[in-house]
Design a protein that fits this description.
The chain contains ten helices and eight strands. It is α/β, with parallel strands linked by helices. The protein has a domain at 80-271: Glycoside hydrolase/deacetylase (TIM Barrel), CATH 3.20.20. The strands form two sheets. Strands 1, 2, 3, 6, 7 and 8 form a six-stranded parallel beta sheet that branches. Helix 1 (19-36) packs antiparallel against helix 2 (41-60). It binds zinc ion. Zinc ion is lined by residues 86-87, 136, 140, 178.
């Protein structure tokens, strides 16, 4: 739940080296050669299992950096968090935006492309309120994301990127994988799209746990300066906004502000070619961009 090795690599995944992917492919190529060469079935099976273990670890462990960099928290030690909502937009979005306004909080919405196309007004409203739109695939292929081949993976990510860029007016800079799963072909696709992958420091597991108190306790256990907190849209009976309200109240009590990554602009600020000076871009005036000159990398 809580990642002990924080980092915040810049968007674009510029320094990815395909060593892990090469090792997986190499193991699967080497195993039959070993078997054919008479080196022994045992060695062939061992190499095959090692390659398989690498593939499974890199794909199923949400914070694994085996197949490319993953951000798990904001840099620095100030009492700020990066609040993120997955799986929208949906009927919850307006209520969530109200809650965020009430607490003068900023958030990043990891949206699903085809859901965004069905509710373009909600995407524009997220942008108008001073929040950030990010990429959460085109169709949310839960369960099989880690198994997608390079073409299908690119279609999921580039499809959502095109959809969200058209609706929000500026290209998303952040990507969150479905259920946090990895994929051996992910890093080059993200690099081409100019996206960086982020997982989380703490998640509430609100999609699988119906108990609000337990969900909040999970998130607050992971609370620390720079924590990335993950909640979802789409809970039953307005639960998503209710949970967000309780979380934000708890953050207020503890002196934490919900901000976007330092130096990062909200989508509306990107549209205006400006970014905040300080990175403490709390929603003091969510519809009034600051006067800095251009969006900066997060590093
Ligand atoms: Zn999701």
């Amino acid at each position: 739940m809580v990642d002990p090795t924080p980092s915040m690599p810049p968007p674009g995944q510029r320094h990815w080296r395909p060593a892990a992917l090469s090792a997986v492919i190499g193991a699967h190529a080497l195993a039959p050669l070993l078997w054919l060469s008479g080196a022994g079935t045992g060695w062939a099976i061992a190499v095959l299992l090692a390659g398989g273990a690498l593939l499974v670890w890199g794909s199923l462990y949400p914070h694994s950096r085996l197949f490319g960099p993953v951000s798990t928290r904001l840099p620095g030690d100030r009492p700020v968090v990066w609040l993120t909502f997955d799986d929208g937009p949906c009927a919850d979005t307006p209520a969530l935006l109200e809650v965020l306004d009430r607490h003068r909080a900023r958030a990043t919405f990891f949206l699903v492309g085809e859901r965004a196309r069905r509710a373009p007004g909600l995407v524009r409203e997220i942008v108008r309120r001073g929040h950030q739109v990010a990429n959460h695939t085109e169709s949310h292929p839960a369960g099989r994301f880690w198994l997608l081949g390079p073409k299908a993976l690119a279609a999921e990510i580039e499809g959502a990127q095109a959809t969200l860029t058209a609706l929000a007016g500026a290209p998303p800079r952040w990507f969150r994988a479905v259920a946090g799963l990895g994929n051996p072909f992910l890093a080059p696709v993200l690099r081409r799209a100019g996206l960086a992958r982020v997982s989380w420091t703490a998640r509430g597991l609100d999609g699988v746990d119906g108990d609000d108190d337990r969900v909040l306790a999970r998130l607050l256990r992971g609370l620390r300066p720079g924590a990335v907190l993950l909640l979802h849209e789409g809970g039953p009976d307005g639960r998503s906004a209710r949970l967000a309200g309780r979380l934000l109240a708890a953050l207020d009590e503890r002196g934490y502000a919900a901000v976007l990554p330092p130096g990062e602009a909200s989508t509306s600020q990107l549209l205006n070619g400006v970014r905040p000076h300080s990175g403490e871009n709390r929603a003091d005036s969510p519809r009034a961009p600051s006067s800095a000159s251009s969006p900066a990398r997060v590093g």
